[in-house]
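TL;DR need structure tokens for one chain.
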Amino acid sequence: MNELRVFLHSGLDVVDSREVAQMVEKRHDNLIRDISGYIKIIEKNNAIRSEDVTKGNERNFAPSDFFIPSTYKDRKGEIRPCYLLTKKGCDMVANKMTGEKGVLFTAAYVTAFEAMREHILGKENVHPINSETEQAKISFQRAELLNSIAMGYDGTYRQVLQAYAAKELTGKFILPLPKSDRPTYTAQEIGNRLGISANKVGHLANKNGLKTEQYGAWFVDKSPYSNKEVRSFRYYEEVLPALQKALGT
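>> reply
TL;DR here they are.
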């Protein structure tokens, strides 16, 4: 799962729907379809509420507070649709997701948007005397939000969110991330057994939707190229027949 890139658009912090789709391992056109459906529901609500103005019950939501229509050029130079998601938009997408993907996406976008806020605070030349206080306040708010989200889950997902919350406060994973009791294998180890490369394993797994709880689990490891922590998928033995089928062997 790659990190989300938050950027400013018309004064709003937003992320690109293409990056969101990649992060939650969903086809971009399917995510676009889902977002279009959310917008229709919002617009339908607004139409109904507008009829109740005389009753004093109107409560309209601007779709642009959540999703902003945009476009991009594909590799062929053709114009394609996409959306820019605000934090509210990410909230809505995350709330429709279940399981590990939803938890990790929530943790990722909360962290990304807060990092953007920190960047802006830095540009505004926060007074040195207050900088540590501001940083501590931001970390506390992140941890509080992650803990709040964790309360809506049980078991592994709660442990993941609480581990990230503790890391916000201490800078380290003082609470261990949950580990699977089942043996797991890296893409390289699986590739060696099938006679293919690790990249080929990852490509087939992504293409055939094999990075699921049935075939493995996500772990947080230290990058071999830096001190940065990265998420990697480790596979169960059960993935071998599925990959062999995908290879046509």
